[in-house]
Structure formats: structure tokens, C-alpha cells
Amino acid sequence: VQLQASGGGLVQAGGSLNLSCATSESIWRSRAWGWFRQAPGKEREFVAAVSWGGLSEYYIDSVKGRFTISRDNAKNTVYLQMNSLRPEDTAVYYCATTHNTWGVPGTAVTPPPFPTEYDSWGQGTQVTVSS
Fold this sequence. Notes:
Blueprint: E1 4-6, E2 9-12, E3 17-22, H1 25-28, E4 32-38, E5 45-50, E6 57-59, E7 67-72, E8 77-82, E9 91-98, E10 120-121, E11 125-130
Parallel strand pairs: 2-11
Antiparallel strand pairs: 1-3, 3-8, 4-5, 4-9, 5-6, 7-8, 9-10, 9-11
């Protein structure tokens, strides 16, 4: 499974970056998407997710109001717009996908938060925020 993540870089605190993760149409369908991050010496952390139908989004508290996840079905791409970046946002960011149907009426209202619940991963893109 191929997921191509890009958009990372070095930015000053308060700046913005827009991460993207593209894949093939055959992989894109019927999947929910998430972004994780991993700082040096720390475990991989769930950041945000968008549901299979794109109607639901979920964020960890520390990024609410600053990050926005979105999906473009025409481009088979998921994005993570990151604004008001802070030094503590510094990490390698990974996109991931799952067949989990969270957000669909009658199913879970929150996404799976653990990396083991996602079956395909992008290669990671470094985000560094300087103070």
C-alpha cells in the first residue's frame, strides 16, 4: 500500500504548514484517514482523523482550533492544515488509513486512536517549529 506524505519543513512558531498524503484510487475508497506524529524519544501520537464519508473530524485537544484535517476525493488526498504552530508540534508526521467506519451513523463517534488500528502508513514528513 503506497501513501505519499509531503509538506513538512522548518517554520517559526506561529507559522503554518499544510501536509498532504496522496494514494491511489483503489486504496482511497471506503477508508477513514488519520494523522499521527512522533517526537524524538516519544511514542507515536494520534493527532487528527477524518471519517470515511468525510462528514466527521476529530482532533486531540492540543491541536483543536489550530489544525484542520480534510480530504479531497477527486485527488485521493488527505490534508492536515497546521496553523499557529508551536515548538511542541515538532515531530515526524505520518498519515495512516483504516477500514474503521467511525463517524458513520450507528458506529463509533470517535476514531481509533492507536497506531495498531491503522493498516497502512505513509513514510513520514518532518515538521520542525523553531521558537
